[in-house]
């Protein structure tokens, strides 16, 4: 019981770590997008993401220094966000690795009553099985193949032949229906 509770608590902790790290990483990446597209720095949302980036992404500030400062800050911000997501995922997996395995779910000892009782014949009263004679497999008849014509009829000719056959079948069916109606 204690092991199951500890396993649940550690699984919850791992989930919280993964979600918090992912949110921090996402906010840092959003700040990178704001910087790259030159968002208004006095906007509240831009200031909020800048504060998150300054507090949680400080380790990648000025890591890469291309000539364009906008691209440099965007690259460094994206790298910080990616690191937060990867590290959060790894820490979450590490927490789950140390969690005790949850015991298998207990099976019910009592089965619910059945609608109709099942009668079982005692083994002494069951008829003995007769050994089955081995039947010889019957060979399958080979399909009858019609001789192939010398020239393959065109698709137009095949279409006309099918249409003629359908008309003949429909005429035959009408004739049978008429004969039955007269009888």
Secondary structure topology:
Layout lengths: L1 H35 L7 H13 L12 H30 L56 H28 L1
Account of the protein in words:
This protein is mainly alpha-helical and 183 residues long. Among the domains are: 2-98, no CATH class; 155-183. The protein is built from 4 helices and no strands. The protein has helices at 2-36, 44-56, 69-98, 155-182. Helix 1 (2-36) crosses helix 2 and helix 1 runs antiparallel to helix 3. The model has no long low-confidence stretch (mean pLDDT 81).
Which terms summarize this structure?
183 residues, mainly alpha, flat
Sequence stretches where pLDDT stays below 50 over 5 or more residues: none
Q: How many β-strands, per DSSP?
A: 0
Order of helices and strands: HHHH
- Tally the helices: 4
The share of residues in extended strands comes to: under 5%
**What average pLDDT do the residues reach?**
81
Name the structural class: mainly alpha
Distance between the termini: 84 Å
Biggest sheet, in brief?
A: none
- Share of helical residues: 55-70%
Q: Write down the Rg.
A: 40 Å
| Structural shape | flat
